[in-house]
């Protein structure tokens, strides 16, 4: 393990964004997009009662994994808009959940933690690593170290007792039903984290695992020839009983992983796979003839069967498809065709509650449907702020990554000295790759990339 040099952030002017009511959104104006995002971000964070000093679980009926997903949404908000006002909350939320082995296997949540739940915290940890997001605690490994730990933890549970491989949905006997089910969200999460670690580190172990997980998913029939991503199958039936239900977030997890692999390998097969899955994802749009190109969760939305989890799926769908366009730009016309209409539709529903800005689930209604919630806010936020995703800096690689101890205003994290110069080494694992994280030696300032106006992307 190479110790890393403490980096003081480059002085940058504070980004001041004026809140904009969602119904006043102008998708051609980045300031309007960011202003609407600010409004919805505040709505989303109203469900979270944690502080910069302490993580607090989301209230019922929300599960622990959705807190990890919320941190990912807010990491996107910070990165895409430049508004750093939630950064301390995000950092504390991530750091308080690392677990004793720094892999987000938290004993207090073992009763509800599955492989997919761990993966969702992993998505957020990887985003923090890829953006040099502040990690103010010198007693905890760097973000990239912990991303590697999560990978190792998932890899240790690769299960070959049935179906020739794959991850089971659940981990612990307390969730026995999930111990007989291999699902695409768990395996897709493992695939995407492997791909992102391959991109960040150049370590072939990660890209080999990404290839392995993709091949298994396709060979077992959970990804079909058209790019549809099915929910899963039972191990007790040797995965011969594929559940044909499809969800938007399952597809997008594989879409982004494939797009990252296209950049890692320069192999056209990954570009083609990304394009094919994006085309297959058209099934998540146009619920009615008079609602063309409006996103909906077709497995549950029209029959009012979406639970609290499902009401957040459109958030991850948008997050990962927007991100995929950086590496596979050929999908940009499809995003413009489908997501631009959906953005407007989502914003049109954000007129509820006392604030008059709460969002709802059924975007094709064109109005607030009386059904607010955290998932609804996250879905609208990721779909709207994604319009400026490619204007932000691209994900960094290991030689560009630094352990940043201070926040953008140059103040240290709560209770943490601003003079720490190293990060703690990550816990070791016998499975997967051992890497040197945040390993660059340069410390003269944050690396910046050319910002491209939003109109140039879409």
From TrEMBL:
Keywords: Glycoprotein, Glycosidase, Hydrolase, Signal. The keyword Glycoprotein applies. It is an enzyme of class 3 (hydrolase). GO terms for molecular function: mannan endo-1,6-alpha-mannosidase activity. Its EC number is 3.2.1.101. The keyword Secreted does not apply. Residues 417-433 have a biased composition (Low complexity). This is Mannan endo-1,6-alpha-mannosidase. It comes from Triangularia verruculosa.
């Amino acid at each position: 393990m190479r110790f890393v040099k403490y980096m003081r952030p480059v002085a940058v002017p504070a980004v001041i964004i004026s809140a904009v009511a969602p119904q006043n959104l102008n998708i051609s104006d980045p300031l309007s997009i960011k202003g609407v995002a600010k409004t919805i971000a505040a709505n989303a964070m109203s469900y979270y009662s944690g502080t910069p000093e302490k993580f607090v679980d989301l209230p019922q009926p929300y599960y622990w994994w959705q807190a990890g997903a919320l941190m990912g949404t807010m990491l996107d908000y910070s990165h895409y808009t430049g508004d750093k006002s939630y950064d301390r909350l995000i950092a504390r939320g991530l750091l308080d959940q690392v677990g004793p082995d720094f892999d987000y296997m938290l004993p207090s949540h073992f009763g509800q933690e599955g492989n997919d739940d761990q993966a969702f915290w992993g998505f957020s940890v990887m985003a923090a690593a890829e953006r040099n997001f502040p990690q103010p605690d010198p007693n905890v490994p760097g973000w990239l170290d912990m991303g590697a730990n999560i990978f190792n933890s998932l890899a240790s549970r690769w299960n070959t007792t049935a179906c020739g491989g794959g991850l089971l949905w659940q981990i612990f006997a307390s969730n026995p039903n999930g111990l007989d089910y291999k699902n695409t969200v768990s395996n897709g999460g493992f695939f995407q984290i492997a791909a992102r670690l391959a991109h960040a580190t150049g370590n072939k172990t990660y890209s080999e695992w990404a290839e392995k997980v993709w091949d298994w998913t396709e060979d077992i029939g959970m990804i079909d020839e058209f790019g549809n991503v099915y929910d899963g199958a039972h191990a007790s039936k040797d995965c011969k009983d594929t559940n044909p239900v499809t969800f938007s977030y399952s597809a997008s997890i594989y879409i982004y992983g494939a797009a990252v692999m296209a950049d890692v390998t320069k192999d056209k097969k990954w570009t083609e796979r990304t394009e094919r899955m994006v085309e297959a994802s058209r099934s998540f749009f146009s619920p009615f003839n008079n609602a063309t190109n409006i996103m909906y969760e077709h497995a549950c939305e029209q029959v009012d069967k979406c639970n609290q989890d499902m009401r957040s799926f459109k958030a991850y769908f948008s997050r990962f498809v927007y991100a995929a366009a950086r590496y596979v730009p050929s999908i940009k016309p499809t995003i413009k065709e489908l997501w631009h209409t959906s953005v407007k539709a989502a914003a049109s529903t954000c007129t509820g509650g006392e604030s008059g800005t709460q969002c709802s689930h059924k975007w094709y209604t064109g109005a607030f449907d009386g059904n607010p919630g955290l998932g609804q806010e996250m879905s609208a936020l990721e779909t709207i702020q994604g319009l400026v995703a490619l204007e932000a800096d691209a994900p960094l690689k290991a030689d560009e990554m630094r352990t940043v101890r201070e926040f953008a205003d140059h103040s240290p994290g709560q209770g943490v000295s601003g003079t720490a110069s190293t990060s703690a080494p990550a816990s070791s694992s016998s499975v997967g790759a051992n890497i040197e994280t945040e390993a660059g030696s340069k410390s003269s300032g944050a690396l910046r990339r050319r910002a491209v106006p939003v109109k140039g992307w879409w």
